[in-house]
Design a protein that fits this description.
elongated; five-stranded mixed β-sheet; 10 strands; binds copper (II) ion; alpha+beta; 2 domains; about 220 residues; Immunoglobulin-like
Length: about 220
């Protein structure tokens, strides 16, 4: 049996498409609890949409075959209403559950500050000697601990996002938003601005470094006051 050319093309393109599911900016390669919850929700939404799409395709095939033995009550009330509502309700409940889990709690989290500007990021941390240290484009956090990032903006609306650790959160002038992040292991993670903010938006990247020992010695990269 010969495989149709469209199917063969699709199979050839699959490795290229799937390559986009990994890498330092992939939400499908989570390295922290919040990102893992969001990735699980994404997979749930994908499965739900595939199930509903398959049901619609089956209905289309049945319509074109013009078979009269179709049981209208089963397909319209059973599948069309109750089954669809069930799938959508499950996805909605999962979204609420994940949203509730990733809310910052009032506990003993380490706090760092993220200040967005056109076009870059300045971060403030407490250094090893207890003094405040300001760095440009490099955020430091402890590994394996919850960290609250206090996010604000100096000019227009930006958005703080480290895809492997948590969801995105807007940086708004005159307001401080709090994002709870946690890195499972020490290492470097990529971050970026996720809200279009002008011609330099595409270059608004930063690196997040998670350390085993905390606080780290940041004296060599501290910004001059
Ligand atoms: Cu931006």
């Amino acid at each position: 049996m010969s495989v149709p050319i469209s199917v063969r093309r699709g199979l050839c393109a699959a490795p290229i498409v799937l390559a986009g599911c990994s890498g330092p900016l992939s939400t499908l390669a989570p390295s922290g609890p919040a990102a893992r919850d969001i990735a699980t929700l994404w997979w749930g939404m994908l499965i739900g949409s595939v199930v509903l799409t398959l049901m619609v395709v089956i209905l289309l095939v049945m319509a074109f075959r013009q078979k009269r033995e179709v049981e209208a009550r089963f397909w319209t009330i059973g599948m069309g209403v109750w089954f669809s509502l069930g799938v959508l309700s499950a996805v909605l409940a999962a979204g609420l559950w994940v949203g509730e889990r990733i809310i910052p709690r009032d506990d003993e989290a380490v706090t760092v500050e993220a200040h967005a500007y056109q076009w870059g990021w300045v971060f403030r941390h407490t250094g090893a000697d207890g003094a405040e240290v300001e760095t440009d484009g490099r955020l430091h956090i402890p590994a394996g601990q919850p960290v609250d990032v206090l996010i604000t903006s100096e000019d227009v609306i930006h958005s703080f996002w480290v895809p492997q650790l948590a969801g995105k959160l807007d940086a708004i002038p005159g307001r401080v938003n709090r994002a709870r992040i946690k890195a499972d292991t020490a290492g470097a993670y990529e971050g970026l601005c996720a809200e279009f903010c002008g011609v330099g938006h595409a270059h608004m990247r930063f690196t997040l470094e998670a350390h085993d020992s905390w606080p780290p010695d940041l004296s060599d990269e501290a910004e001059a006051p």
